[in-house]
Amino acid sequence: MLLVADSVGFMADTPPSETTDTPGEASARDALDRVRFEEEALSHADQLYRVALRLSGSQQAAEELVQEAYLRAFRGWRGYRPGTNLAAWLATILRNAFLDEARKQSRRPAQESIDDTSEYYLYNHLTETAAEPQEAVLNRLSGGAIVDSLSEIPPNFREVVVLVDIGDFSYQDAADILGVPIGTVMSRLHRGRRALKQALANHASKQEAE
Amino acid sequence: MSIDPCVGVESNLQPYLDRQLTPDEVGLIEGHLGECSYCRERYHFEAKLRDTVKTVCCGDPVPEGLVDRVRLHCRGLGAA
Q1: What ipTM did this prediction achieve?
Q2: Cβ separation B42–A189 shorter than 8 A
Q3: B76: how many CB neighbours lie within 10 A of its CB?
Q4: Which helix H or strand E contains B41, and what residues bound it?
Q5: What is the predicted pLDDT for the residue at B1?
Q6: Region class of B7: left (phi > 0), else alpha (psi between -120 and 50), else beta
Q7: Which residue of A34, A75, A77 is the best one to mutate when testing the B interface, meaning the one whose CB has the most B CBs within 10 A?
Q8: Rg (Cα) of chain B, in Å, rounded?
Q9: Rounded (5°) CA angle A176-A181-A186
């Protein structure tokens, strides 16, 4: 199974598997592989879970997603090239697993577009609607409202915001994970953050009205 | 950067917060932020917004037992 796009480059220099091992050598190598997987790959569980949680939107779905991603990663572990970005390699697999699951449930993320608004959309909105300073309104926004706002961003923009702003991946990592040029990452990030501000403005208004 | 420094700051604020600008561009932005309260207030708000979203959305640690379940599951699969 091809786990990551060739364009990502993670698999490009993978040495062909040895076929001349004795059974003893093969099992020693398997054991070493397993130790490396458990030590290295599993240490990224926190970062992967954060991304999974914000992609899928529920704890249960995120746990299943992380588990599925690690199983795929384990099966394809020989395809990982040591020294390349392991977190990005794992996130690529996680994102593919997420898309597969979404496809199964026929909720393939639509390629939606979103309105372009001012950078200061939320700031201006709070200036017009709230009696308090803007940052005070931000402080009073509930965690639930913020999480909901993130989940309301159209999926193809949300995944970039999740990778960069929540997962701490660089623009280049996000480009590799998504298999798109870095310019696409930047424009989706820009629009995704604008959409987040619009959603936050709506939640802030709702909260004021309550 | 744009001729109007406030417009320049607005359009470069996100890359600035992402640390994607060159040292020269950073110098221009920071120089302007030092003297313009209009941009400074908005910059503080944007930085605070980033922090708030991140703190809220990163708050959940990986559930207890998940890593152990993954480890056991992989061990059950045999060789990597």
Answers
A1: 0.84
A2: no
A3: 8
A4: helix B37-57
A5: 47
A6: alpha
A7: A34
A8: 22
A9: 100
Q: Which two tokens stand for residue A24?
A: 């003893």
Indicate the length of chain A as a whole number.
210
Over residues A117-131, the pLDDT tens digits come to 788 989 988 888 887
Task: Give the model confidence (pLDDT) of A182-198 as tens digits.
Answer: 999 999 999 999 999 99
Instruction: Say yes or no to pLDDT of A4 above 60.
Output: no
User: Mean pLDDT across chain A, nearest whole number?
Assistant: 84
| A175 part of contact set with chain B, CB < 8 Å | no
Give the whole-angstrom CA distance, residue A185 versus residue A190: 8
Cα separation, A47 vs A88, in Å, equals: 10
C-alpha atoms less than 13 angstroms from C-alpha of B53 in its C-beta half-sphere: 23
Question: What are the structure tokens assigned to B32, written together?
Answer: 């302007």
Cα B39 from Cα B23, distance rounded (Å) = 19
State the first-to-last Cα distance of chain B, in angstroms, to the nearest integer. Answer: 52
Of B42, B46, B57, the CB nearest to A166: B57
The torsion of the CA quartet B33, B35, B37, B42, rounded to 10 degrees, works out to: -10
